[in-house]
Design goal:
The chain is of the alpha+beta class. It has one domain. Strands 1, 2, 3, 4, 5 and 6 form a 6-stranded mixed beta sheet that branches. It is globular. The chain starts with about 20 loop residues before the first strand and ends in a 25-residue tail after the last strand.
Length: about 200
Amino acid sequence: MKPYDGFKAQKNEGAFLDVPPAGLYTAVIKKARYVEADGEKWNRDRIELFVDIAEGDYKDRYMALFTDQKEKWGEDAKYKGLVTLVLPVNEDEPWKKKNFEHNVWAIEDSNSNFRFNWDKLPNVDDFNGKMVGLNVRQRLYTYKEKDRESTEIGRFESIQDIKSGRCKVLKANDKREKKSEDSTDGSSFTDVSKSVDVPW
Protein backbone atom coordinates (compact mmCIF):
# COMPACT_ATOMS: atom_id res chain seq x y z
CA MET A 1 0.00 0.00 0.00
CA LYS A 2 1.36 3.43 -0.97
CA PRO A 3 1.07 6.45 1.36
CA TYR A 4 -1.13 9.38 0.46
CA ASP A 5 0.49 12.46 -1.07
CA GLY A 6 2.27 14.66 1.45
CA PHE A 7 2.43 12.07 4.27
CA LYS A 8 4.88 12.97 7.03
CA ALA A 9 4.87 11.65 10.58
CA GLN A 10 4.82 14.76 12.74
CA LYS A 11 3.42 16.11 15.97
CA ASN A 12 0.06 17.86 15.71
CA GLU A 13 0.73 21.05 17.68
CA GLY A 14 -2.79 22.31 17.10
CA ALA A 15 -4.30 19.38 18.97
CA PHE A 16 -2.93 20.79 22.20
CA LEU A 17 -4.18 24.36 21.80
CA ASP A 18 -6.66 25.44 24.45
CA VAL A 19 -8.95 28.43 24.36
CA PRO A 20 -7.71 31.22 26.63
CA PRO A 21 -8.96 30.56 30.19
CA ALA A 22 -11.27 32.98 31.96
CA GLY A 23 -9.32 36.08 32.86
CA LEU A 24 -8.33 39.61 31.87
CA TYR A 25 -6.15 40.19 28.81
CA THR A 26 -4.60 42.95 26.74
CA ALA A 27 -5.72 42.61 23.13
CA VAL A 28 -5.46 44.30 19.76
CA ILE A 29 -8.23 44.86 17.22
CA LYS A 30 -6.93 43.14 14.10
CA LYS A 31 -9.81 44.02 11.80
CA ALA A 32 -13.06 45.97 12.02
CA ARG A 33 -15.98 46.02 9.63
CA TYR A 34 -19.42 47.61 9.50
CA VAL A 35 -22.42 45.43 8.71
CA GLU A 36 -25.87 46.82 7.96
CA ALA A 37 -29.05 45.34 9.41
CA ASP A 38 -30.62 42.70 7.21
CA GLY A 39 -34.15 42.95 8.62
CA GLU A 40 -34.16 39.25 9.46
CA LYS A 41 -31.60 37.91 11.93
CA TRP A 42 -30.23 41.39 12.58
CA ASN A 43 -32.50 44.41 13.03
CA ARG A 44 -29.66 46.78 13.98
CA ASP A 45 -26.46 47.79 12.23
CA ARG A 46 -23.36 46.45 13.93
CA ILE A 47 -19.59 46.71 14.09
CA GLU A 48 -17.75 43.40 13.97
CA LEU A 49 -14.36 43.42 15.65
CA PHE A 50 -11.82 40.65 15.16
CA VAL A 51 -9.46 40.78 18.13
CA ASP A 52 -6.55 38.75 19.42
CA ILE A 53 -4.56 38.65 22.64
CA ALA A 54 -1.51 40.90 22.35
CA GLU A 55 0.82 39.67 25.09
CA GLY A 56 1.49 36.87 27.56
CA ASP A 57 1.23 33.09 27.29
CA TYR A 58 -1.87 33.31 25.09
CA LYS A 59 -0.58 35.89 22.63
CA ASP A 60 -2.16 35.40 19.17
CA ARG A 61 -4.11 32.39 20.47
CA TYR A 62 -7.39 33.16 18.64
CA MET A 63 -5.61 33.26 15.29
CA ALA A 64 -3.69 30.09 16.13
CA LEU A 65 -6.96 28.32 16.96
CA PHE A 66 -8.55 29.57 13.74
CA THR A 67 -5.58 28.46 11.63
CA ASP A 68 -5.66 25.02 13.22
CA GLN A 69 -9.42 24.69 12.68
CA LYS A 70 -9.11 25.81 9.07
CA GLU A 71 -6.55 23.08 8.40
CA LYS A 72 -8.88 20.48 9.93
CA TRP A 73 -12.33 21.71 8.89
CA GLY A 74 -11.76 24.09 5.98
CA GLU A 75 -14.57 26.62 5.53
CA ASP A 76 -16.27 25.43 8.74
CA ALA A 77 -13.54 27.04 10.86
CA LYS A 78 -14.77 29.80 13.20
CA TYR A 79 -12.80 32.70 14.63
CA LYS A 80 -13.24 32.72 18.42
CA GLY A 81 -11.92 36.26 18.80
CA LEU A 82 -14.91 37.84 17.04
CA VAL A 83 -16.94 40.30 19.10
CA THR A 84 -19.86 42.38 17.91
CA LEU A 85 -21.00 45.85 18.91
CA VAL A 86 -24.66 46.24 17.99
CA LEU A 87 -25.42 49.93 17.42
CA PRO A 88 -28.34 51.00 19.65
CA VAL A 89 -31.08 53.36 18.50
CA ASN A 90 -33.34 55.67 20.50
CA GLU A 91 -36.04 53.10 21.20
CA ASP A 92 -33.65 50.42 22.49
CA GLU A 93 -33.59 49.47 26.17
CA PRO A 94 -31.29 51.52 28.43
CA TRP A 95 -29.13 48.51 29.31
CA LYS A 96 -28.21 48.00 25.63
CA LYS A 97 -27.09 51.62 25.38
CA LYS A 98 -25.18 51.39 28.65
CA ASN A 99 -23.28 48.30 27.55
CA PHE A 100 -22.45 49.81 24.16
CA GLU A 101 -21.19 52.97 25.85
CA HIS A 102 -18.99 50.93 28.22
CA ASN A 103 -17.35 49.03 25.37
CA VAL A 104 -16.69 52.19 23.36
CA TRP A 105 -15.31 53.89 26.47
CA ALA A 106 -12.97 50.92 27.09
CA ILE A 107 -11.45 51.36 23.63
CA GLU A 108 -11.17 55.13 24.05
CA ASP A 109 -9.59 54.86 27.51
CA SER A 110 -7.08 52.33 26.20
CA ASN A 111 -6.04 54.55 23.26
CA SER A 112 -5.35 58.25 23.74
CA ASN A 113 -5.58 58.81 19.96
CA PHE A 114 -9.02 57.22 19.47
CA ARG A 115 -12.46 58.78 19.82
CA PHE A 116 -15.57 57.09 18.48
CA ASN A 117 -17.27 59.26 15.85
CA TRP A 118 -20.81 58.45 14.73
CA ASP A 119 -20.42 60.74 11.72
CA LYS A 120 -17.69 58.51 10.28
CA LEU A 121 -19.91 55.43 10.12
CA PRO A 122 -20.01 53.16 8.18
CA ASN A 123 -16.23 53.73 7.99
CA VAL A 124 -14.68 51.84 10.91
CA ASP A 125 -11.03 51.88 9.86
CA ASP A 126 -10.12 53.87 12.99
CA PHE A 127 -10.71 50.74 15.07
CA ASN A 128 -7.99 48.76 13.30
CA GLY A 129 -4.84 48.31 15.36
CA LYS A 130 -6.31 49.77 18.55
CA MET A 131 -5.56 48.13 21.90
CA VAL A 132 -8.27 47.13 24.37
CA GLY A 133 -8.73 44.96 27.43
CA LEU A 134 -10.67 41.70 27.19
CA ASN A 135 -12.82 40.26 29.94
CA VAL A 136 -12.94 36.55 29.12
CA ARG A 137 -15.49 34.54 31.09
CA GLN A 138 -16.33 30.86 31.47
CA ARG A 139 -19.05 29.51 29.19
CA LEU A 140 -21.15 26.55 30.32
CA TYR A 141 -23.38 24.81 27.80
CA THR A 142 -25.02 21.52 26.87
CA TYR A 143 -24.05 19.66 23.69
CA LYS A 144 -25.37 16.24 22.73
CA GLU A 145 -26.94 15.92 26.18
CA LYS A 146 -23.63 16.48 27.95
CA ASP A 147 -22.61 19.51 29.98
CA ARG A 148 -19.47 21.14 28.62
CA GLU A 149 -17.40 24.23 29.27
CA SER A 150 -15.30 26.68 27.33
CA THR A 151 -14.63 30.42 27.49
CA GLU A 152 -15.85 33.45 25.56
CA ILE A 153 -15.18 37.17 25.41
CA GLY A 154 -17.72 38.86 27.67
CA ARG A 155 -16.90 42.54 27.11
CA PHE A 156 -14.14 45.07 26.66
CA GLU A 157 -12.31 46.67 29.58
CA SER A 158 -9.93 49.57 29.90
CA ILE A 159 -6.34 48.33 29.81
CA GLN A 160 -5.49 50.80 32.57
CA ASP A 161 -8.24 49.37 34.77
CA ILE A 162 -6.97 45.83 34.20
CA LYS A 163 -3.39 46.73 35.06
CA SER A 164 -4.44 48.64 38.18
CA GLY A 165 -6.56 45.74 39.44
CA ARG A 166 -9.88 47.58 39.17
CA CYS A 167 -11.52 44.86 37.01
CA LYS A 168 -13.00 41.51 37.95
CA VAL A 169 -13.67 38.60 35.63
CA LEU A 170 -17.35 38.34 34.69
CA LYS A 171 -19.34 35.48 36.16
CA ALA A 172 -19.84 32.39 34.01
CA ASN A 173 -22.35 32.50 31.17
CA ASP A 174 -24.44 29.45 32.08
CA LYS A 175 -26.45 28.19 29.09
CA ARG A 176 -26.81 24.58 30.20
CA GLU A 177 -30.19 23.09 29.37
CA LYS A 178 -31.03 22.35 32.99
CA LYS A 179 -30.85 26.07 33.80
CA SER A 180 -34.26 27.73 33.65
CA GLU A 181 -33.13 31.33 33.09
CA ASP A 182 -30.47 32.89 30.91
CA SER A 183 -27.54 34.68 32.47
CA THR A 184 -27.69 38.47 32.23
CA ASP A 185 -24.46 39.79 33.70
CA GLY A 186 -23.84 42.91 31.67
CA SER A 187 -22.23 41.37 28.62
CA SER A 188 -23.23 43.06 25.38
CA PHE A 189 -21.45 40.95 22.82
CA THR A 190 -23.55 38.73 20.58
CA ASP A 191 -22.01 35.36 19.77
CA VAL A 192 -21.97 35.26 16.00
CA SER A 193 -18.81 33.19 15.56
CA LYS A 194 -20.88 30.33 14.12
CA SER A 195 -22.31 32.29 11.21
CA VAL A 196 -19.90 35.06 10.21
CA ASP A 197 -17.36 34.99 7.39
CA VAL A 198 -13.84 35.80 8.58
CA PRO A 199 -12.16 38.63 6.62
CA TRP A 200 -8.93 36.74 5.99
